[in-house]
Amino acid sequence: MLSVKHLIDTTSLTADDITQILDTAKSFDPIVNGRNIKKVPALRGRTIVNLFLEPSTRTLKSFELAEKRLSADSISMGGATSSVVKGESLADTIQTIDAMKVDMFVVRARLAGTPQVITQNTDAIVINGGDGKHQHPTQAMLDLYTIREHFGHLDGLKVAIVGDLAHSRVCGSLAPALKTMGADVTLVAPPTFQVGDPSWFGCNQTNHLDDVIEDMDVIYMLRVQLERMEGAAIPSRREYNRLYGLSLEREARMKDNAIICHPGPMNRGMEIDAEVADCARSRILNQVNAGVLTRMAEMYLLMGGEE
Amino acid sequence: MAYLIKGAHVVDPQVGLDGIRDVLVEDKQIVEVAEAIEAAEGVEVIDGAGKYLVPGLVDMHVHFRDPGFEYKETIASGSRAAAHGGFTDVATMPNTDPVTDTGAEIRYQIDAARRAGLVHVRPMGALTRGEKGESLAEIGDMVVEGASAFSDDGHGVQSAGMMKTCMAYVSQFDRVVCAHCEVESLTKNGVINSGRAATRLGMFGWPALGEELEIWRDIELCRSTGCALHICHISTAKGLEMVKAAKAEGLPVTCEVTPHHLFLNDEDIDDTYNTYNTNLKMNPPLRKKSDMEALVDGIIDGSIDCVVTDHAPHAKHEKDCEWEIAFFGTIGLETSLPLMITNLVDTGKMSWDRLVEVMAVNPRRLLRCNPVKIEAGSQADLTLIDPKREIDVTEDYFESKSKNSAFLGQHLTGVATDVLMAGKRTLIDGVVA
What is the pLDDT of residues B412-431, one digit of tens each? Predict the structure, then answer.
């Protein structure tokens, strides 16, 4: 059993919670990756609503597949098709769906804190599929799974998270989760992209990727979210690529066993060069695969596991 | 009507009074203050034993939302909240709809308040037409109709040149300019204090610098124009240092602080999943704990002149939503005095004398109202306080039309039980008349 009712943020998770999620995900690996019939009856008869108030492709499809593989009944609704666009409040939307008796909400939202508002309007379990610039905990779990698969452990690893940290919910949940598991985290970004709190979760901060790249076990490149920037925090894509982009030259300086991750979608040629994205160190497609496994594990455990 | 308030502990630093007295009120005036006064025939006696009697409390920064946003608050409902909180005077901010930027709008508020008959409303006028920061409002017209001070509260006047014009123009009248200090290019999209809170909760920050830079600018404009400057709802330690330095130079600079900036900070905004409590979303935002502590020191040591509530009513649907789209502000009129007594007076950090200065004497002076003193001949604006009476802050406690209090759930000690406003009883044993 997890120590939380909902999966809203990684800051509420204990090391034991995270280990349970990763171990359970591992137990689903032979089902998803080894069988022709990739389905178990674990959540048969349970109802899940994927409420995606902000557009998403990979996260939504990953959840939908995870739900199907667990035999849950699920429906997906988007902001554009829901009554949210007609001016209905979030509380009313949730209470309306809740009245149809559902067991779980998976929510993706533009506004930070939306999952918390949902928990106040339903007794159902809530999974945060990414809220504004706050957190994206299911992304963090699939990242940890991918990294653990490669190294066999998480404690003591040196991980650099590189990119638009200030606007990144991925960083917001990954960095604390890594710290909880005993990894050493370095945040790499230009000052205009750094997080606003220098002491944040005891992470190291630097503006210079070249100073740290040789020490790292994992280089985690963030997507530079041009659509999320409030103003011109960097002068150009070209300059960003030159100073912070993961090029073949930089890749060549990494430790022998080091790996590269990226949450996707990638801006090839900006934060990561095409050749690097496809190189042997890249774990980017492994992350996508782990996404289904870890989301299955989270839904299964939050719904009560073996009970 | 005549009232005799018997046996209360009278505190009024203006006349050096701090002891048990009887106070006799006839019509609108105090007619006698003495150690013992016999109640004549027809004089109603109000028992003051165990209570404090002070000059009527003044809140010089409230939003009554009338006209334009009557679904949040009206002059009538706001007046009830004020009386319930122990106030005899409030200054209403001009960000109404239409904006209070002409004499007629001032007159409307004063007339509506007279009809409500519970509190003296002292409307503030806008500095600029429509609070747009572009051209002078009819400031002289508003002075003639009774405007108490001038402010574009809700916005900083973004152009330094426009602010200089405003302050120079106001300097011909005996009125204070109240500055809401906010450089919008620094606070754009900001919904929470920059730094730890913004990072943890994943939202755009509203940095201290956005406030401090404009405080610095306006102090320099005060020096240049000679216009009296009052800094609204100061929230940072550094901003307060600048005000202190200006005062030490002898500049006519004053400032105010709210109970929420005195008693809450950004660590109170939790990101666990039952919170994101939007009643803690303010402008300026709740700051760091160290800022809060500096403000507490400032209100005690005299560098901050008064306590105001920035009473900001909002309807339920405007707060019961996601933080980023929730409205800014908390109501405050009915919790201000109990918070001050519970947190500062009862703990021995603040004297009753000082409480009276920051909640009655100083704001009345800044609004250019006649002083109210507990002596014969003064207007009978009086607040009687029971320092032992306890309250639970619940939605039901509030007379305000809106219930968006940052202090819901708190248990406080020390409340106003009775208020006389111009000799009329507006609060009787805790119940609004």
Answer: 999 999 999 999 999 999 99
Q: What pLDDT digit, counting tens, does each position of A98-149 carry? A: 999 999 999 999 999 999 999 999 999 999 999 999 999 999 999 999 999 9
| Residue A1 is assigned to a structural domain of this protein | no
Task: Examine residue B62 and state whether it is found in any structural domain, yes or no.
Answer: yes
Residue numbers in A near B204 (CB within 8 A): 133, 230
pLDDT score recorded for residue A304: 84
**Number of domains within chain B:** 2
Tokens standing for B425? 């009883």
Active site residue B310: yes
**ipTM beyond cut 0.85:** no
Q: Identify the pLDDT of residue A83.
A: 57
Q: How far lies B25's CA from each of B6, B18, B420, in Å?
A: 11, 19, 9
How far from B338 is each of B279, B384, B413, CA to CA, in Å?
A: 19, 13, 6
Please tell me if residue A137 touches chain B, with a CB cutoff of 8 Å.
no
Q: Which of A168, A271, A159 is nearest to A216 (CA)?
A: A159
- The 8 Å CB, 24+ separation contacts for B424-428 are B424/B1, B424/B117, B425/B3, B426/B83, B426/B88, B426/B117, B426/B118, B426/B119, B427/B83, B427/B84, B427/B86
Question: By the CB < 8 Å criterion, does A230 face chain B?
Answer: yes
Let me know: does A128 contact A71? Beta carbons within 8 Å: no
Look up the domain containing A45 and give its range: 10-135+288-302
Question: What is the pLDDT at residue A230?
Answer: 45
Distance CA B130, CA B134 (A): 9
